[in-house]
Long-chain-fatty-acid--CoA ligase (Mesorhizobium qingshengii), 657 residues
Amino acid sequence: MAKTGKKAAPAKAPAKAASEQAAGPDGQAAPATKAATAKAEAKPATKSSPVKTAGKSTPTKTASPKAAPAKAAVSKAAPAAKPVATAAKRLPKALTALAAGLPKKPWLKSYPKNMPAEIGVLPYSSIGDFLVATCKQFSAQPAFTCMGKSISYADIERLSAAFGAYLQSKGLQKGARVALMMPNVLQYPVAMMAILRAGYTVVNVNPLYTPRELEHQLKDSGAQAIVILENFASTLQAVIARTAVKHVVVAAMGDMLGGLKGTIVNLVVRRVKKMVPAWSLPGHVKFNAAVKAGASLRFTPAIVTADDVAFLQYTGGTTGISKGAVLLHSNVLANVVQNALWLEDAYTIKPKPAHPNFICALPLYHIFALTVNALMGMQQGARNVLIPNPRDIPGFVKELAKYPVHIFPGLNTLFNALLNNEDFRKLDFKPLILTLGGGMAVQKGVAERWKALTGCPVTEGYGLSETSPVATANKFSASDFTGTIGLPLPSTEIAIRDDDGNNLPLGEVGEICIRGPQVMAGYWNRPDETAKVMTKDGYFKSGDMGFMDERGYTKIVDRKKDMILVSGFNVYPNELEEVVAQHPGVLEVAAIGVPDEHSGEVPKLFVVRKDPALTAEALTAYCRENLTGYKRPKYIEFRTELPKTPVGKILRRALRE
């Protein structure tokens, strides 16, 4: 485990392995020397990808209640991979009793034909090794395309090595955190791959963050370097002096577009659209200059292990305090394998194209696009078509018209916006193999309209930053929208539990809890917060309420946490209330989410004035300065008092009624 700013990453995280099962299918502790189901012996049909799957289950480790994060099971480049343990172990008696109420795994009987129950041992120790292998395998094929410019797999390998060498020349030690604050531009995958190959940790940052939000994330992560698009450099300028950031690399939209086109794009962005506020960051280096400098240096790939930290993916979790979910190389690699296996089911309906095209409209700094688009896309040898601004629907549709679209991950709001565009309805949808919905609930009406137009159903999945992210998905061969979040992916277990941690029968509503190799190691430097969401038997408590039916499909019915979901982004009432409460004219404030036909939900504030002259317009302006766009309240209601419990806690549920 790479070290944190103080000590090693959270000590209370569960033990994990690529094919870990702490209990047998009947819920009792059992040796894992046999496959959980006969289906585990089947292998996927594809032979083109570098990610391998296991022909059978491997022995596993079990978690001790006080165990620190165990090393995940991965093989290294050398000879044959070793299993996690030479002999299966039984759970301690207390944990066996806790697991005794688990129902059998009903989802296995609903699995697609030939889908293995377990992913087996991972073939790579690090994401860097995995990506280099894909670059060698698909060297001549386009890997990423943005604004008409493509870079091949060979290009991204070469450019990432050069940028990695530049970072190493700055004296950064293994495990150093490097922040990425960019939208979907070609520089993102180059920088991401470079950071991981050089042995550092990627800290993904939303480029729309306000100075307050950016400062918190940079301080909390201890980032020493940042790669940022110039459009957002003024935000960094406002806070950099109060952070540990010493190395700044500034990119521009046209940097990698080449020649005249790149120059024109930069001119339009800076001078015509005026999208780059004035900024000053003494000592910064331009992205192209850093790559050029690194190309003349020797790049030394770092020795990275499966239990080193790959990403700090920030999330509010269940409390609203922005925390870094510690995603190890093994966590993310496991989820790539899980998703790649599940994707094989889609190819039973339509064969895999020789050169697949993935549409990447979701931001790469978001865990959904990072894993499903960037990483699984590369595993597939696909071209990812990067969309820097998906809100520009006419421009987005023009990009879609240029390529046969095969795989399309997206959000309900995005699908809805496209369906309302006349030019989108004129596109050729015959190549479309899979539409994957995530980030927020897909509405039935949108799903029905999408299928009627494209002939392809929206297949819904579910996950969180803490699960790298995908935990469940509907079968990709399904012909209709199910309205559920689907089945647990291979090597993933779902338990529905009550407030006391007891397993509930099928059909009963409880908290959705997740166990599998993709579950995070914990929250960065926050062992107490980690302990709140991780159970002794290794499950992550999602905070979402749902039930599992007899077929093994799970349906979400409510959120235990008060999180507001705005176009797939988590908005936490605690954060909104903390920010708004600092306004001198506010006495009390409460935030809730209310339905919105465009974004699913939007924030609404209930405010008790301290200053009788305070207006909604003034408060809106204040929020604009302190909160990024999707967090800003759409509605503000003033009240003389707020409903409270006998001990004085504001009752948000009463405000929803």
User: Anything to note?
Assistant: The radius of gyration is 24 Å. The CA atoms of residues 583 and 622 lie 8 Å apart. Confidence is low (pLDDT under 50) at residues 1-101. The first strand starts at residue 142 and ends at 146.
